[in-house]
Design goal:
This protein has 159 residues and is an alpha+beta fold. The chain has one domain: Alpha-Beta Plaits. Helix content is 33%, strand content 27%. It is built from 4 helices and 9 strands, in the order βαβββαβββαββα. It has helices spanning 16-29, 68-81, 123-132, 143-157; strands at 3-11, 33-38, 42-44, 55-64, 96-102, 107-108, 113-114, 137-138, 141-142. Strands 1, 2, 3, 4 and 5 form a 5-stranded antiparallel beta sheet that branches. Strand 6 (107-108) and strand 7 form a beta hairpin.
Length: 159
C-alpha cells in the first residue's frame, strides 16, 4: 500500500535554492518514493533561533511503501549528503527535511513525532503546505484553517 507523506524542506546556508532543488531531485530518484506534488519556494524569517539568515522553504507530497522510520532514515541521509551538521537546535542548515504527516498516523517517539509537533504553529510550514494540500486535516482542522489561525495570531502579535 502506498502511504501519503508530506514533507517540509528548508535551507538557509549557501545556495539555498540549489539545496532544495537537489533534494527534490534526489527524492524523485529514489525507488520506492513517488513525488506527487511540490509547492513553490518561499523565503521566510528564521524561527526559534532568529539571529541567522532567512530560509527558503517548500513542501512536498509523496507516496511510498516505506515505513515511517525508513522514511526518516532516508531524509536524514539526504540532509547528511547536503552537508548538514547538527550543531545547535534551530540553527543554520544547508538542508532541513521534516516529515509533517504520514497518512493519518500518530506517533510519539524521541526520534519521530507524527504529525510534526510544530506543524500547526509555523507559517513557513503551513504556507507551502496549503499550496499543495489545503484540505489536509491535521489535529481536527484543515491546513488552510491552521494557516488562517497562524496569520491571525501573527497580526494580533504585531499590533
Amino acid at each position: 500500500m502506498a502511504h501519503l507523506v508530506y514533507l517540509s524542506l528548508g535551507s538557509n546556508m549557501g545556495d539555498r535554492e540549489e539545496y532544495l532543488r537537489q533534494a527534490v531531485a534526489r527524492l524523485k530518484s529514489i525507488t520506492g518514493l513517488n513525488v506527487i506534488a511540490e509547492s513553490s519556494i518561499i523565503e521566510t524569517e528564521p524561527w526559534g533561533m532568529t539571529d541567522q539568515p532567512a530560509f527558503l522553504n517548500m513542501a512536498v507530497a509523496m507516496r511510498t511503501s516505506f515505513a515511517p522510520f525508513v522514511v526518516l532514515q532516508i531524509m536524514q541521509k539526504m540532509e547528511e549528503l547536503a552537508g548538514r551538521e547538527h550543531l545547535e537546535k534551530w540553527g543554520p542548515r544547508t538542508l532541513d527535511i521534516d516529515i509533517l504527516t504520514y497518512d493519518d498516523i500518530e506517533l510519539n517517539f524521541p526520534q519521530l513525532t507524527l504529525p510534526h509537533p510544530h506543524l500547526t504553529e509555523r507559517l513557513f510550514v503551513l504556507q507551502p503546505l496549503a499550496e499543495i494540500a489545503p484540505e489536509l486535516v491535521v489535529k481536527g482542522k484543515t491546513v488552510r484553517e491552521w494557516l488562517e489561525l497562524v496569520r491571525l495570531g501573527e497580526e494580533a502579535d504585531s499590533k
